[in-house]
Amino acid sequence: MLALAAGCQSQSSQPTAPSTGKSAALRNMEQVAIAAHRCWFASGDPTFRDYSFANELNSFSGRPRFLLVPKGNFGGKPLLVVQAEGSAGAVTTFGPLLEQQDGSRIAGDVRRWSGGDSACA
């Protein structure tokens, strides 16, 4: 009888946040990719004029990412990879651009954007 009574109790009246169906990794990468495109490419920043932005957010690997590749060569070797993974959506960067003159700026921008600040440098 107790099992029957327990089954009839009402659900909590606490509202739940609607689920977007997106993983933390995808949500974080969307935020970073939008800021990167806006700040590095749409703004006409000369630092990035020799590169193209290759968006791969719809990755089935569980690691949404974007790449910077040589301008106009979307199949070329990535010069920068920015990706997120895991339940916390941790964002990581790697590639030869990080070892060049603007590497610390790039890393700082990505770190700032992944932390929620979408401002350009």
General description of the model:
The protein has helices at 2-7, 24-42, 103-114, and strands spanning 51-56, 65-70, 80-85, 90-94. The chain is 31% helix and 19% strand. The protein has a four-stranded antiparallel sheet, with helices on one face. The longest helix is centred in the N-terminal third of the chain and has 19 residues, at 24-42. It has 121 residues and is an alpha+beta fold. Strand 3 and strand 4 form a beta hairpin. Helix 2 (24-42) crosses helix 3. The chain has three helices and four strands; from the N terminus they run H-H-E-E-E-E-H. The chain has one domain (22-114). Residues 4-19 have low confidence and may be disordered.
Largest sheet: 4 strands, antiparallel
Q: List the secondary-structure elements in sequence, H or E.
A: HHEEEEH
What are the segments in which pLDDT stays under 50 over at least 5 consecutive residues? 4-19
- Share of helix, binned: 25-40%
| Number of structurally distinct domains | 1
Large-scale geometry: globular
Region (Disordered): 1-24
Protein name: Lipoprotein
How would you summarize this macromolecular structure in one to three sentences?
Residues 1-24 are annotated as: Disordered. The chain has helices spanning 2-7, 24-42, 103-114, and strands spanning 51-56, 65-70, 80-85, 90-94.
